[in-house]
Specification:
Blueprint: E1 3-8, E2 12-18, E3 24-31, H1 35-46, E4 53-58, H2 87-94, E5 98-103, H3 104-115, E6 124-129, E7 133-139, E8 142-143, H4 176-180, H5 182-189, H6 200-221, E9 225-229, H7 238-250, E10 267-268, H8 276-291
Parallel strand pairs: 1-4, 4-5, 6-9, 9-10
Antiparallel strand pairs: 1-2, 2-3, 6-7, 7-8
Bound molecules: adenosine-5'-diphosphate (ADP) and zinc ion (ZN).
């Protein structure tokens, strides 16, 4: 099967061609600008390819309710050009094959469960910590949508005593994303996050907030694996600090080896590395074509 994949991120788009085994034959990355310009690059990449299906993992918020007239639209994004953009409609005009659409993070979670760190699991969470914070949830084998889709990045967290940074979420100020995203780190400490590698206080505070988020997710969703990706997680010292905070916040309440001795294999880096999102789009097609449920019908 020849599968097209589009990881439609708010900062960059990645397009690829791959197969049902998660192998990517070729890919291209370009900046996300206006919808017109960005989709013209998509068009150029796929122009001479005859694909059997297209998987799209998109930034959001994204309307995924099939009954809604706005199905497949990006909705309230702060990215002005993309507000209320009919992404699925634009792709349907371009592609005659079946299209399978989900959030970028749900796609990544499915990719990791298909071929990566959560292979063999029916319950996992993929969290990205980058320009924003978001998570894809696979629960009992299903990607969670519900009312909209989970917006884990905006969960409320307990502020650490003495942290006076107001937070940078335009909606909530000091939600998780407002306190712990890449831009929040930069606003709080006055330097871009990747330049703060040697400042231990930065990563201890970061782990304090992300540790709370993971604790809340463990207690509500009960994942069998938690995968952390995104630019900020490139700080290798952060993951062990997060594991420790999770153990502190849980305080021994959940008696499972995964939260004790084997926590290093429970809260992990993406098994698919930087390819989780793109391979996840391939996985959307593999899964969707089994249940014959394309978004484009
Ligand atoms: P996006 O979330 O836009 O798709 P990324 O996942 O690369 O893209 O996240 C970008 C954010 O990650 C920026 O805020 C940047 O400061 C931060 N970042 C990128 N690389 C690193 C790094 N090596 N260490 C810490 N933070 C980083
Ligand atoms: Zn928020």
């Amino acid at each position: 099967m020849k599968i097209g994949a589009i990881e439609a991120g708010g900062t960059k788009f990645v397009c690829g061609i791959g197969d049902e085994h998660g192998q990517v034959a070729k890919s291209i990355t370009f900046q996300t600008t206006t919808p017109e310009e960005t989709l013209s690059h998509v068009h150029a990449f796929f122009q001479s390819e005859h694909i059997d299906g297209l998987g799209v993992g998109a930034f959001g918020p994204l309307e995924l309710d099939r009954q809604s007239p706005l199905y497949g639209h990006i909705t309230t994004t702060p990215k002005r050009h993309w507000q209320h953009f009919n992404l699925l409609g634009a792709l349907k005009d371009e592609f005659s094959c079946d299209i399978y659409l989900d959030t970028d993070v749900n796609a990544a979670a499915l990719g990791e469960a298909s071929w990566g760190a959560a292979a063999g699991h029916q319950n996992c969470i993929y969290i990205t910590v980058g320009t924003g914070i978001g998570a894809g949830l696979l629960v009992e084998g299903n990607l969670v949508h519900g009312l909209l889709h989970p917006e884990v990045g905006h969960m409320l967290v307990r502020r650490r005593a003495g942290d006076t940074f107001s937070g940078c979420c335009p909606y909530h100020q000091d939600c998780l994303e407002g306190l712990a995203s890449g831009p929040a780190i930069q606003a709080r400490w006055g330097e871009e996050a990747s330049l703060l590698a040697n400042n231990d206080a930065v990563w201890m505070l970061e782990a304090y907030y992300l540790g709370q988020a993971l604790t809340n997710l463990i207690l509500t969703v009960s994942p069998e694996k938690i995968i952390l990706g995104g630019g900020v997680m490139q700080q290798a010292q952060l993951l062990p600090l997060i594991r420790r905070e999770v153990q502190t916040f849980l305080a021994g309440y959940v008696e499972k080896r995964e939260l004790g001795q084997t926590i290093d294999q429970y809260i992990v880096d993406p098994g698919l590395g930087q390819m989780a999102g793109l391979k996840g789009c391939l996985a959307l097609v593999v899964r969707g074509s089994r249940s014959h449920s394309p978004a484009s019908q």
